[in-house]
Amino acid sequence: MRLIEPLGMLDGEAATAAVARGLALPLAGGRLAFTLARLIDEDGARLAPVADIPDIFAPELARLTTPPPPWAGLPSGQPAVMGILNVTPDSFSDGGRHFDPEAAIAAGQAMAEAGAAIIDVGGESTRPGAEAVAPEEEQLRILPVIRALASRGVLISVDTRNAATMAAALEAGAAIINDVSGLAHDPAALALVARRDCAVVMMHMRGAPATMKSLATYGDVTLEVLAELGARLAAAEHAGIAPARIALDPGFGFAKEGRQNLDLMRRLALFANFGRPLLIGVSRKRLVGMASGEVEATRRAPGSIAAGLYALGHGALILRVHDVAETVQAVRVWDSLSDHGMLT
Q: Of 232, 238, 258, 277, whose CB is crowded by the most CB atoms within 10 A?
């Protein structure tokens, strides 16, 4: 595997000037630029200024510096917020809060009005140790909510591992499939998504929510997640899913423990090697609790926002969050401060 890890990140006017002088290259063709690269191949890893990246890395460099195609109808290159709407009794930080359909519909509408570009509706908790929910029960929970919100023009993502639920949700008005298993859990999922004109988020996870904690063993967590997520991306494309329909999620907290999540976040820019939009979900998670010292998940909004802005500054495009209004405000400020025009 040959990879380029962008380092020495710049944004705003500094990024524009550095690119113009040949001192930096644009990251994903957007507002960010990088001045150094860690070149990774079978010979190991070595640092180089961007002007000295050898020609053998040309394919990787092209993917790294080219803007991903527009995804799910969102404005190209603009950061977006995805609001989490768990229609469950047992999700890790908000279980039961939106279990009633009318409460869930009202919450989803409020998120959209607060600036969420996407509402991600899920009927199965995927917290560590969670037991599976039958697709029939999952659909009873989420389909009334999806129908109501989609009928109001809200862009809906369905958070599910089950192909039957994916199909039912798309019929109800969802436009995006968000699968924590990377379309690996259900053997029918790849073919279903290939047949449908929908966007998809493919996340990295090992095992299932009930078993993933025992599988969090890595040498280099970032490189192994990259390789395994890349295999799922290749499987999707082989099944006939157009690359332009796919966004990727490293899966923070899913078969990653403790400092593994911090290490993965610090090297997030490596995921730009895929040339796909990058979605990040760290809202209220243990990563935030460990870094901040806050034990109570519902009090982790400030830390979640900080982690999200760090992710945007290292190539992420979509933030999946619980605290929508606060995150939207933070992203708008970050966007205003970092934007000095697209670099390509």
A: 277
Please confirm, yes or no, whether 285 is among the known catalytic residues: yes
**CA nearest to 237, candidates 194, 192, 182, 186:** 194
Distance CA 45, CA 262 (A): 20
Residue 320 designated active-site: yes
Reported pTM? 0.94
Q: Are 83 and 120 in contact (CB under 8 A)?
A: yes
Do 231 and 250 touch, CB atoms closer than 8 A? Answer: no
d(CA 288, CA 110): 25
Domain-embedded: residue 69: no
pLDDT value for 131: 78
Condensed to tens digits (0 to 9), the pLDDT of residues 57-104 reads: 999 999 999 998 899 999 988 999 999 999 988 555 555 566 688 999
Place of tokens 């109800």: 172
What are the structure tokens assigned to 237, written together?
A: 């494309």
- Assess whether 92 and 48 both reside in one domain: no
DSSP secondary structure letter of residue 49: E
pLDDT digits (tens, 9 = 90+) for 105-133: 999 999 999 999 999 999 998 877 777 88
Q: Which domain holds residue 98?
A: 80-338
8 and 140: one domain? no
C-alpha separations of 161 from 27, 179, 186, 247, 326 in Å: 31, 5, 7, 16, 29
Under 8 Å between Cβ of 273 and 41? no
Question: And the tokens for 201?
Answer: 């988020």
- Check 31, 285, 286, 300 and give the catalytic one: 285
Instruction: Verify that 40 and 119 share a domain, yes or no.
Output: no
Distance in angstroms (rounded) separating the CA atoms of residues 269 and 4: 9
